[in-house]
Amino acid sequence: MVQPAWQDDFVPLSVDSAPVPEYGSGSLADLLPTLLAGQEVAGFDAAIGELAPADRNCVFLIDGLGWEQIEAHPDEAPFLHSLLPTSRGGTGRPITAGFPATTATSLASVGTGLPPGEHGLPGYTVRNPETGELMNQLRWNPWTPPKAWQPHPTLFQLADAAGVRTAQVSAPAFEQTPLTKVALSGGSFLGRLSGEERMDTAAERLAAGDRSLVYTYYSEVDGKGHRFGMDSDAWRGQLMYVDGLARRLAEQLPPRSALYITADHGMIDIPFDEQSRIDFDEDWELSAGVALLGGEGRARHVYAVPGAASDVLAVWREVLGEQFWVASRDEAVAAGWFGPSVDERVYGRIGDVVAAAHDDVVITASRNEPHESAMAGMHGSMTPVEQFVPLLEVRS
To answer: What is the pTM of this model?
Structure first.
């Protein structure tokens, strides 16, 4: 059989060419260990060597606001934009989110100080090897015992036990969620509805101890980006609002404090056309031999029916290999996508095939994931727009 002419030039993206996050020196998982080392909590090292110690540390995590979004919007975010030179200890550089660049994975990395291969939340949805079902790790559906799924203590728990005054200030609805329990629990949880209340309360709690660690969070930049895209007035309005929140908190810092403004991932708008949105549910080639499709549009975990993993890998690499980094589970693990090591309990949660977007393209699932497939803004992969997150700093 003669190969079509286009196949003569086909070279899939190399697994090793994917820009692996800076695990161990400049990722979200390295932030709290570095802060606790600076507060002289035993057992921690300053992994992000550019950061100077502070007695009181506050982390303000803005969901979905990556480095490139701040760079591109100086008018809507004048305060945050002015802080770009302070990022990463005054180097003016970002840190990386971790793979996949998605909320559940990133929050677990922040709260445990571990990369995804160790904390065990390696994606938006992943297969539970014990049940064979897809587990949504953001919504915790179907219900799975949290401590069995993520058994490591949080750094907030360890800090609190070491005498650091520790608090989380967030929306009241998050207090009892399993994700909060496994990633962010420890010390006091203070539920506050408005962004202004969160900023004021965070500053108050920061001043409450000689050594303190406060985490606060805002979600709607991500929410508006998913729904309307970053070209929308709704998204720009949220950016302007959160810029004001960051300034409000910075102006209230008590003495001997450091405020770090970061994010769980960036975001990219994906056009609504067939070239940019590949529908798995309508593609017989991609769906052949696949038992479950996990992850999200730009970071897919693909679970093959027994015996079909090598065939699925070959097809996905042939069909998508110029637009996605397509790896087998073992290749992704060996390349360090999920961190330097992957725990045995986590290994089976990773797809038989892992596909991470290189181009401005997503793999949707119109029937099984109608809500996610309709999103304008997406994230998850290892491209700079998704991976690079700020580590802006204000000191008092």
So the answer is: 0.96
Residue 269 CA, chain-centre distance (Å), reads 17
Give CA separation, 160 vs 34, 87, 213, 357, 369, in Å: 16, 27, 9, 39, 40
Q: Are 273 and 39 in contact (CB under 8 A)?
A: no
DSSP 307-338: T-HHHHHHHHHHHHTTTEEEEEHHHHHHTTTT
* pLDDT tens-place string over residues 194-226: 999 999 999 999 999 999 999 999 999 999 999
User: CA 66, 70, 73, 79: dihedral to nearest 10 degrees?
Assistant: 140
CA distances from 193 to 72, 114, 120, 139, 207 (A): 29, 29, 30, 20, 21
What is the predicted pLDDT for the residue at 4? Answer: 44
Beta strand pairing status for 290-296 and 299-304? antiparallel
Cβ contact 104:349 at 8 Å: no
Are the C-beta atoms of residues 163 and 36 closer than 8 Å to each other? no
Alpha-helical regions (H) of 120-267: 146-149, 155-161, 178-183, 195-206, 220-228, 233-250
DSSP 226-256: HHH-TTSHHHHHHHHHHHHHHHHHHTTPPTT
Q: Which two tokens stand for residue 151?
A: 């058994």
Query: Six-digit token pair at 297?
Result: 């549009």
